[in-house]
Specification:
Two copies of one chain form a homodimer. By secondary structure, chain A is of the alpha/beta class. Helices cover 30% and strands 23% of the residues of chain A. The C terminus of chain A is likely disordered.
Chain lengths: 641, 641
Amino acid sequence: MATHKVTFLPAEISTDVPTGSLVTEAVKTAGLEISQPCGGQGRCGRCAVMIESGKVRRRSTIRLNSDDLKAGFALACQALIEGDAVISIPDQERIERRLVTEHTARAIELPYAYSPDKLQVIQTFQLTLQPPSLDDSQDDLSRLSDALREFGYDPVDVHLSILQRFGSILRDSDWKPHILLETSRPGAGRARLIAIDSAPFQPFGVALDIGTTTVTAYLVDLMSGKVKASAAEYNGQIARGEDVISRIIYAGKGDGLNELGLLVRETIQDLLEKLQRRSGVSPEEIYKVTVAGNTTMIHLFLRLPPETIRLTPYIPALNQPPCFLARDLDLPIHPLASVDCLPGVASYVGADISAGVLASGLAESDSLTLFIDVGTNGEIVLGTREWMLTCACSAGPAFEGAGVVDGMRATNGAIEEVWVHSETYEPTYRVIGGGKPHGICGSGLISLLSELFVTGVIDRSGSVKLDLDTPRVREGEHGPEYVVAWPNETDTGQDIVLTKVDINNLMRAKAAIYAGYSVLATSVGVDLADVQQVLVGGAFGKYINVENAIKIGLLPDLPWDSFHFLGNTSALGAYMGLLSSESREQIQEIAARMTYMELSADNTFFDAFTAALFLPHTDISRFPSVAEIWEQDGGHSDENK
Amino acid sequence: MATHKVTFLPAEISTDVPTGSLVTEAVKTAGLEISQPCGGQGRCGRCAVMIESGKVRRRSTIRLNSDDLKAGFALACQALIEGDAVISIPDQERIERRLVTEHTARAIELPYAYSPDKLQVIQTFQLTLQPPSLDDSQDDLSRLSDALREFGYDPVDVHLSILQRFGSILRDSDWKPHILLETSRPGAGRARLIAIDSAPFQPFGVALDIGTTTVTAYLVDLMSGKVKASAAEYNGQIARGEDVISRIIYAGKGDGLNELGLLVRETIQDLLEKLQRRSGVSPEEIYKVTVAGNTTMIHLFLRLPPETIRLTPYIPALNQPPCFLARDLDLPIHPLASVDCLPGVASYVGADISAGVLASGLAESDSLTLFIDVGTNGEIVLGTREWMLTCACSAGPAFEGAGVVDGMRATNGAIEEVWVHSETYEPTYRVIGGGKPHGICGSGLISLLSELFVTGVIDRSGSVKLDLDTPRVREGEHGPEYVVAWPNETDTGQDIVLTKVDINNLMRAKAAIYAGYSVLATSVGVDLADVQQVLVGGAFGKYINVENAIKIGLLPDLPWDSFHFLGNTSALGAYMGLLSSESREQIQEIAARMTYMELSADNTFFDAFTAALFLPHTDISRFPSVAEIWEQDGGHSDENK
């Protein structure tokens, strides 16, 4: 058998290996190391190397996109040496960054295609007024109004609390006051004076996404559009019920509505304190808030009784709230800040989706697009710029790390990706922030479920195979479980496990989402295979892995290029609406244009849900790429049952 | 000498008297009595009798208007028997009522030319909505808004507190809710939902006049326009200063502004409690308030710092306040009631005058009209429907019964008219409510000052003649004084007196008002004699006597027919603006049309004021009718000095 000389960079160490050797074997021969968390199964993408020159054949290109291939990347565990070659081993960090970048290209941390322009909702500028005299004894307010009229703002609403002190500001500023104006508000055809001062303003705003499980806040410089800080926390209402239905029931009892209103305010207060610590910006400098969230969350935030949302025919008090003042909503920011709750579509397709659809670009797309918001109450939109159909499926909070024993949000200490060795069943994981793990976030759960399924630790129904020869599977306190980390490896000193109950919750969540989009597609006679792009939003982690999500049947089996992970589209839409009146109007239009389909009135949904309670689905032919792996592996999971 | 038979009705007693006898002599001869408080000087009008038939010559027709003359009235003390006659002696009550009616023809107790029509600002009606269904899952607010749109109201503002409970009202009312709507608001081009209920509304409103000295409130049935109750109280701020200037100074010290704001609220609260006691209407049923008052009072009510009103160039924070909600102003009525502070003209011509001019009819008049509002801060308007010139003169509160030892408001127990016998100097008086007197109100003070002047108790400079042979004049605790009532005649057991200090205050008040309108007339080249009508507004009592007011130089010396006493025109204007959007707009137009003249920037005012500090004036030729009496009496006052 011929041998070939392989040189590895940057170490410049060479070795000879026989034709057909895997690159991973050559690495080992050369005395080097490369990370293979999945056990060399071509699943994790962490052994990606760069073929600088020479003949190397890729046996599989899983995890590599067309840009990666063009750049010369290959998976070391799936690439065969067929001639002399020079191969670079990137350091681990570089690979991780590549994977991260791939999935967060449109993440919100960077301002979203925003440039300050005349469409800015909040404007600040300096006025120059003629001082009064005995010959010109116009009152202060008329004098101010006349000056604003010259800028095209007429009439301008001025709050009593400003009227009670603007006179001295006019005089202190030598009749050259700086003003802060809200140029337009939904439902009010006039500008509003938010503040007036003798010093210039540097106004900030907050884009708030009130999720059933997670509340996210972005602190935005309203002049530059820059995000100064962001923060997320579990919604304090969780202790009163994990999903919207249980919250609605809680709200209906005694002082429940008020209590839930207070709890979410406490969460927002915590977020504001975090934002202040991270940015140095005081809450008093926050002059505008946009709020996205599902219809129930908006009701609870505004303390509107949500009862009718839950009862047929599922009617919300309102889908398009008017603007309120922060003081009227007890928000501890500037009391005259405007609080703009974005418009929703129906009881179960709320402002989070109107905002998310704007952020996703679906409403401007010519391609048949599936938009999935993976939150506690998974919402789905199917359509193009011409039409949009939407529905909601109660997914539960599992993908947000709630309702899972060791689940957590995607913050420092969360396991966000897991690889399970196919022979030893030993896990490797990546922890956000790099320290010891504290729990597992949504993307980590998807990854873990997929790995357990592919390596045969669980079967297609999600049952843990306790007879495997590994201490990682065991009968735990809550039934069968898989141990992801031992006590000495975690920052709590406790095991991190995934229990059978957790797996069932994850299965139900993914089945609900699958059932949702498949029923939607069927209802308009569209084949899921015809979908040209899938836009995925959700607060469940930015590092979600398409392959894993397909393997467990959460996402439809389409080419990987079709998927775009957009992060928290709801918060992104709120951010866009915060800055631009044009975006704000678009959200309104989107809410008005979407056609809502009530799944609870449709028996096919329950059938589709039940059929999807398998990995990836009862009918595996719906997931050809998974079926292929399955056949390669000889369907071992089921055989080992 | 011929004698004639005179028969008196209703007693049917006859007597024979010589030709040329006075009717009063014939009454005496017949053994009857008739009241002659002024001592038979033809000043009081209380001896009016009806000449049923026969020949009786009227020597003077003072106090009788043309209607009275046509009806056959004559003053018994001024009528000469020149043939047989039949004469009715009306009972005292009837004469009093006649005098009252004469002076209150346009008083506010009766709705002012008001009929409910489509211009009503507050509307209430019942809606019929289609109940929602799975096929019609429109949200509650859109459903309500669509129904209101059919009535022409779009958009309609709905307050958060209504949004928080209207859903259950819609359902409780079987989708047939009653709504209460404010159809228009100054400064807001849209309707507003004030309330919604399953039962019909019977909405009330309050017209409020916040005077420097007196606060007046009318409780109005907003559907019928009927005044259900009225109440007035001294402004609780009086203890912090009697005129606007001292209030402004007080407001500028420490927490003064807030304190004054609280004091007037306490007064309003007292008034609301009185209105409730008198009508049974709860404050929660009050859905709208219009507020008239001078500019400083409006500033203090809204807690706007008034300092710049006092300092040159005398600039108010605003002349046209927007509408506020009762909850934002801490008014204890329906929290979503609209509080509409009417528009003013300038720092010293406020909403009380805009409203008063509307109520007076000046703005619609072709005649050259002088409008005088006799309040603490006397305001004057001169003009026609074509033009209006206005100014303010600081009169002080004397005519409102404040700043006078035994002064009081025109309520029960107030002496409202006084007659002094020309020989005995004994007073006769009429007390509001008919009981023992408690003090003297504004009209009583005018009447008393005039009587003391005409009978020579005081001289033209207002000095009390202590050498008169009567115990009524004496050196009192506060200097020379005239005793109106002895302790045993009063309800307090104390003397009621008029002191030299009181007289000086009254003199200054009347001089300021005279100076105001004379300077105004001079500035536009108008002779006061050309004024065709004088409209007098003011809270100083409804029974003011023109003759007396002219005698002391408060009113210009014009034919009595020229004068119309309108009562509290400010409150009347507030009442009109409360009910009709057309009236409300007219007030706005009036405020915009009036040209303000700043007297403090005009030296001629001070000269005119000084010249008017005599009775009736330094230049008595300006008051020819007074000069005539003076000459008849031989100018005894001055001679006796």
